[in-house]
């Protein structure tokens, strides 16, 4: 009797193992990102992971690692490149750390809107060549591109024209494009850690800051900044990227699943930001913020030295980038 029970118990245990194995994914992949779980980026990443699982009939599972658990964006790009991480987010301009000419995508006022950056990335000769470099030299494949907000300016005084920027102590991240926007618009660029910005605004240590509207609400800058100027100076995109090693390890049918899921997720991602931005202006007005819309042609004209310096650094390739991307926006 005891032997019979042992056999039955062993059989049950083996069946349980077999059942678990039968439903386990063939491919367990990882996606790292800097944004946290409350962000639009994370919502889109969840959509991406769920779509892959659904369309692959459970053959692929994607585990998400938000909040910079796996490092900063550069570190995760390097992990994707080296095969230690499967998926991540990045901006097309962020590849300037590897290919200096990619900086063109984040030069102030170089990009008008999301349709423009999409054409500049995928339809220009410059963009196509950059994508090939990213693929061949870094081992990274770009799956899709989403809209991730446009940077605007909040301040403690109204900005009705570029003249109102003169002398404004403007907090910016320590990045060339943001520093140049502040400098050439007449403000006094003030680099500062993001975590310190609210208190600096509250105490008037700085007069303003620039970020996408979603960040203005999330960080509650509207509580301590009564004015919002729609300066539209830098557009943020978000690329869904995968390591070549990971992509090539998948059979052709699952490669197609991943690519299709990335395209669908990018559309959802874009909609989240577009819808949010449309509602946020009303939200800010209801919270006492006055919104101004200065003439952006005046701002762009002041950025010519930035474009000249970019072309000087990158030579013919830089000139090609500026010419083709400018043409793509017409």
From TrEMBL:
List of residues binding N-acetyl-beta-neuraminate: 91, 151, 171, 211
Primary localisation category: other
GO biological process: transmembrane transport
Source organism (scientific name): Fusobacterium ulcerans 12-1B
Signal sequence coordinates: 1-24
GO cellular component: outer membrane-bounded periplasmic space
Family label: Belongs to the bacterial solute-binding protein 7 family.
Protein name (database record): DctP family TRAP transporter solute receptor
